[in-house]
Amino acid sequence: MNDNLRMQLTRGAIAVGIFVAGLVVGWAIRNDGSNPARISVYKDWQLSCPADEDKKGSCVLATTIVDQGQRLGQVSIGTEASDLSKHAMVVNLPLTVLIPPGFGIQIGSDTKSIPYSTCLPSGCVGTFTMDDKVLDELDSASSVGTTVTAPDGRSVTLPISVQGYKEAAKAMRSAEARRRSWWWRLWS
After folding, report:
1. CATH number of the 38-183 domain
2. b/e for 149-158, b at 16 or more Cβ within 10 A?
3. What angle (nearest 5°) sits at the alpha carbon of residue 166, between those of residues 165 and 167?
4. Looking at residue 129, what is its pLDDT?
5. Given this model, what pLDDT does residue 82 score?
6. Is-contact 145 106, C-beta < 8 A?
7. 26 burial class (0-12, 13-18, 19+ CB within 10 angstroms)?
8. What is the pLDDT of residue 186?
9. What is the rounded distance in angstroms from the CA atom of residue 39 to the CA atom of residue 51?
10. Rounded to whole angstroms, how far apart are CA atoms 35 and 127?
11. pTM score, two decimals?
């Protein structure tokens, strides 16, 4: 073998060695366990995602129900624990509501009636499964509200902000797809 060929092979081997060392160092840095839970804010909506290592956790969108400057409740959207492909909305409303009529979620002109599942010291809670149609309606809604029955029997609609919802929902879908991806799991 001549000296020129030997020098080219040596340079090639050194380049490959540096490349492999870079991959190993990069992978070690990437997998240093510092992948914490993340919280992002999209105007009136907050997206909370657990650390990627938490395979049973899921991202949750949340917003506060505010009327005339007073915090009245909270709306949270996430995946159901029993089936990660289904989304659920959990609504926490003040204790000053009549329980038997339940409450309604008004998306645009459509209202869905939902029974309360329980009442806690923080308020009364209702949950419903959201199908793709409801998710699409929420993405394009210009107004969303929850209708409750006051103690005197009259219906009151409390506004739920849609500012930032579309961006937050898109970020949640992207984060959940990445967290559930076999390719991502291979490299994490």
Report:
1. 2.60.40.1880
2. beeeeeebeb
3. 95
4. 92
5. 78
6. yes
7. exposed
8. 58
9. 11
10. 31
11. 0.78
Per-residue pLDDT tens over the stretch 68-126: 999 999 999 998 877 878 899 999 999 999 999 999 999 988 899 999 999 999 999 99
Q: Indicate whether 147 pLDDT > 70.
A: yes
* pLDDT reported for residue 183: 65
Structure tokens at 84: 């990660």
Degrees (nearest 5) of the Cα angle 17, 21, 24?
140
Burial class of residue 63 in the structure, from the number of CB atoms within 10 Å of its CB (0-12 exposed, 13-18 middle, 19+ buried): buried
In percent, the amount of the chain with pLDDT more than 90 equals 61
Q: Amino acid letter at 52?
A: D
Structure tokens at 53: 């290592």
Radius of gyration (C-alpha) of the chain in whole angstroms: 25
Residue 59 · residue 175 · CB < 8 Å: yes
Torsion 123-142-168-182 (CA) sign: positive
